Amino acid sequence: MKIKLFLLLLATCITTSAQKTVTGTVVDKYGNPIYGARVEGVGSSRYTFTNMDGTYELEIPNGVKRIKAEYAGMNYNTVKAWSDNTIKLKPQTWWNKKPERGQWFVGLQMHIPEYNETSFGIMAGYVKYFGFYVRGVYEFGSKKTEDDYWTEGDAERENILLTGATKTIHNSVGGGAIVRIGSPLYLYFGMGWLWHKYTVECTDNKWRDYGDGYGYGLTFDGFHFQNSMYAELGLMLRYKKMFVNGGLQVSFLENDLGMYSHVGIGMFF
Fold it and tell me: How confident is the model at residue 145 (pLDDT cuts 50, 70, 90)?
């Protein structure tokens, strides 16, 4: 019996020593106390609510390093698990709302190349404060035939007459990192691969591929087309579940730099 009593007292002492009590006050941005705010130990199941004067007293395990305060209509705030903390909460708006979890997003993209063809595609990724994305575009609208101007023999090519109309098809795929920068603004930056296909209109009303950059470059009217690496930088603005984005893509061509702008719209879920 004495041994059981001793073990019970020992367990009680160990449990008590593994706990600590933190105190403080929760106030709004003007310093007014907030009654009924929820205060919890981050990573534990311990929580309490503030009194009429905004004060709280919370017992948490010694291993808990931070405490979190939240109140309806306000952004939550976390501070170190010390006593006599004053935790300030600010009104929550769409502009300053903090993300509570990571979210996936997907959107439609449109590229406006340096030349004359628009490409369409998608952008998708995952982010809380930091995340990743992938993005690809493809030009779907150009007329194509089974005839390939580049692969035809010299004799046949010499007999094909051109109208002077041209199209440059821009395709790319890549990805990178996306970072939340303190508001519903996100900065994304990455790298990838792009390729061009240059088409010409012939007098028989057919469009023929002049070159696609695979293994070689093509010079036409001072422009040099070929496959290349690219780097891109852009901004994404989120409003509730929707977002718009836009940025620039710079390709590292052999003799010059190519620059393309892109815009998009999508949603988080």
Answer: very low
| Sheet architecture: strand order including 38-41 | 47-49, 38-41, 66-70, 77-80
With bands split at pLDDT 50, 70 and 90, how would you rate the model's confidence at 141?
low
Shortest CA distance to 194 belongs to which of 103, 108, 115, 124?
Answer: 115
Q: Give pLDDT tens digits for 183-220.
A: 899 999 999 998 776 677 777 777 666 654 433 334 44
For residues 247 and 87, the answer to whether their CB atoms sit within 8 Å is no
What is 208-247 written as a DSSP string?
A: EEEE--SSS-EEETTEEE--EEEEEEEEEEEETTEEEEEE
- Same domain for 111 and 81: no
Closest by alpha carbon to 259, among 227, 230, 221?
230
pLDDT at 165: 75
Q: What is the CATH number of the domain that holds 18?
A: 2.60.40.1120
Q: How many CA atoms lie within 13 Å of 259's alpha carbon, on the beta-carbon side?
A: 3
Co-location of 19 and 69 in the same domain: yes
Residue type, 1: M
Q: Is the same domain home to 143 and 59? A: no
Coil, strand or helix at 157: helix
pLDDT above 70 covers a percentage of the chain that reads 73
Contacts of 227 (CB under 8 A, 6+ apart): 193, 194, 195, 196, 213, 214
- Backbone φ, ψ for residue 15 (5° rounding): -65, -45
The CA distance from 14 to 196, in Å, is: 70
CA distances from 10 to 133, 164, 167 (A): 54, 93, 83
Tokens of 166: 């041209």
